[in-house]
Amino acid sequence: METKNLVIRETIFEDCEYFAKWETDPNVVQFLTYEEDRTYKDVVEEWFTDKLDPTKLQFTIVRKSIREPIGRIYISRLDKAHDSLDITKLYIAGEENRKMGLGKELLLELLEYCFVFLHMERVTLDYYTGNKAAAALYEKLGFVKEGIARNATKKNGRYYDLHLMSMLRTEFFEKIHDK
Fold it and tell me: What string of DSSP letters covers 85-123?
């Protein structure tokens, strides 16, 4: 996948070094379910395991101007029988890569991939209470609130609520034509 500023490609082994660095950065993982003691070994083991699972997809976000990875996408619950999937983790690392519209650009391309290339009917995602930037972006792009899963995830021994959202294929195409 490619946009004006980004290349979104399948994750390769070498990307695990970036992930291990980012996934211990409090600015990146504040609203992600990664334990504080996450290690490079954990990242590599997870990557290998998930690579073998046909219900999961992993992508690396590369910023064209610097030709280096700047983030990660993790899709799970890819269900071809019911045409649905979940965007489980999505982040852009580094303050220098934020507040530039890259998240919107990324998500629009990812949604097109999901609805056109993968032929999905439904795409879901969630966000932590307090993640105002994610909430605003998802709403702006047309995701619909479905509710709150109370104490749905656990991080560093503490439970967190997740706000559930979804988008249907027709909603995506309506939103694209509204632009």
Answer: EEEEEEEE-SGGGSSSSHHHHHHHHHHHIIIIIS--SEE
β-pair partners for 160: 153
Ranges of each domain in the chain: 6-178
- Categorize the per-residue pLDDT at 176 as very low, low, confident or very high, splitting at 50, 70 and 90: confident
Which candidate, 80, 61, 78, 160, places its Cα nearest to that of 124? 78
Q: How far apart, in Å, do the first and last CA atoms of the chain sit?
A: 20
Token pair recorded at residue 16: 């695990």
Evaluate if residue 179 carries a pLDDT over 90. no
Report residue 64's pLDDT band, with 50, 70 and 90 as the boundaries: very high
Q: Which amino acid is at 172?
A: F
For the chain, how big is the Rg over CA atoms in Å?
Answer: 16
Looking from the CA of 34 toward its CB, the CA atoms found within 13 Å total 26
Q: Are 154 and 176 in contact (CB under 8 A)?
A: no
Reported as type and span, the H/E element at residue 54 is none
Compute how many other C-beta atoms are within 10 angstroms of the C-beta atom of residue 16: 21
Reply yes or no on whether the pLDDT at 103 is more than 80: yes
6-178 is classed CATH 3.30.390.30: no
- Tokens 């560093």 label which residue? 156
